[in-house]
Design goal:
hpI Integrase, Chain A; 359 residues; 48% helix; 3-stranded antiparallel sheet; mainly alpha; DNA polymerase, domain 1; 15 helices; 3 domains
Length: 359
């Protein structure tokens, strides 16, 4: 006989969290589910710490207390994300009949302006370009995994998941180098925007040469669990997202090509170690490289629409979250657009222009 499930309000916070995530897997990417799991893990552990054993015990005052606790520990943008997830979780529990129907209304979500919601942290072009030049001109590191990874991240502006999803077959070597981003969720490499994230991205010739060197000389010849050949590999096959992040931190350590900007001796610095590279104030994660690359393209005069197509993002998202140009850079960019694109239109305003004279 099948054992009947108990009343929903009797679920423990941990059981409720797991049921919610199982439900969300049907309409969300793995990375989104993992993010929600981490956020709710904090809430579940808090519940267990204060003696809330069943979700039916949750009250509005509990949510207020949890909000105050998190607000004292995290940045406003992090708090906003956590509270959105908690509210969605409680709405699910309400639909299940596990909590009061209006309990989710008690979750306070901070109202942020665009400056608060978007981090200014990025890999600046003034750091990225000398670093790439060093990789390209130093034989002992040319074409290594860190070099190939940095070339791809900077010159495609792709997300971490997109780089991780690339196979060898997706890389097309010079003389016309490009990579193809493909949505393959059935073999554990979905793209954030799914089928709409599929696109070819042309590479600079120098990047194509470096990646080709990596494939020929440094790539570990291995397959993932689905028999596919990842482009960027670890000894175990396709790297995890966390592994790609660590490689990114290592690839962007500035002391590789210049004096340490933090006054440390690289030979004795713990930040150069595999597990410590993220602690270096100058090292950067893939998201920061993406932000810097997008800002750089805009500063070069690329139309936002073309940048959005290349990096698979909406123009509005780029303007709000990725365009981190300094005020003088943004002014220069706008001035160049004015001179390049509008001069002829401004000339049309001149009443002495013969083309404006009517007969």
């Amino acid at each position: 006989m099948t054992r009947r499930r108990g009343p929903p309000e009797e679920m423990s916070p941990r059981e409720a969290r797991d049921r919610y995530l199982r439900r969300r897997r049907t309409d969300a990417t793995d990375s989104s589910v993992q993010s929600w799991r981490y956020r709710l893990k904090i809430f579940v552990e808090w519940c267990e710490g204060v003696g809330i054993e069943r979700v039916g015990q949750l009250r509005r005052a509990d949510l207020s207390e949890f909000h105050e606790l998190r607000a004292a520990k995290v940045e406003p943008v992090t708090l906003e994300g956590e509270m959105h997830t908690l509210q969605s979780f409680l709405e699910f529990l309400s639909d299940e009949g596990a909590v009061a129907p209006d309990l989710s209304d008690a979750v306070h979500i901070p109202k942020l302006d665009s400056e608060q919601r978007s981090s200014d942290k990025k890999l600046h072009a003034r750091d990225a370009l000398p670093l790439l030049e060093w990789f390209r001109n130093t034989p002992v590191v040319y074409g290594t995994r860190q070099h190939a990874l940095l070339e791809l991240l900077w010159n495609t502006g792709a997300r971490q998941g997109g780089i991780r999803a690339l196979d060898v077959r997706d890389f097309h070597a010079p003389p016309d180098p490009y990579v193809e981003f493909r949505h393959r969720p059935e073999t554990d490499t979905p793209l954030k925007n799914k089928i709409h994230g599929e696109r070819p991205v042309e590479l600079p010739e120098e990047t194509g040469d470096a990646v080709a060197e990596y494939v020929a000389e440094y790539r570990v010849d291995t397959h993932d669990d689905h028999g596919r050949q990842p482009l960027i590999t670890s000894n175990q096959g396709r790297p995890t997202g966390n592994t790609v992040r660590v490689w990114s931190y290592l690839a962007t350590l500035p002391c590789q090509h210049t004096d340490c900007p933090h006054g440390k001796n690289p030979a004795a610095c713990e930040w150069t170690e595999y597990s410590q590279a993220s602690k270096c104030p100058s090292s950067r994660a893939p998201h920061h490289i993406r932000t810097g690359a997008i800002t750089h393209l805009l500063n070069l005069g690329w139309p936002p629409e073309d940048v959005a197509e290349r990096v698979n993002s909406a123009v509005k998202t780029i303007e709000q979250h990725y365009d981190k140009a300094a005020p003088d850079e943004r002014f220069r960019r706008l001035k160049n657009r004015m001179e390049d694109r509008r001069r002829s239109l401004v000339n049309d305003l001149d009443p002495t222009n013969e083309t404006n004279t009517t007969s």
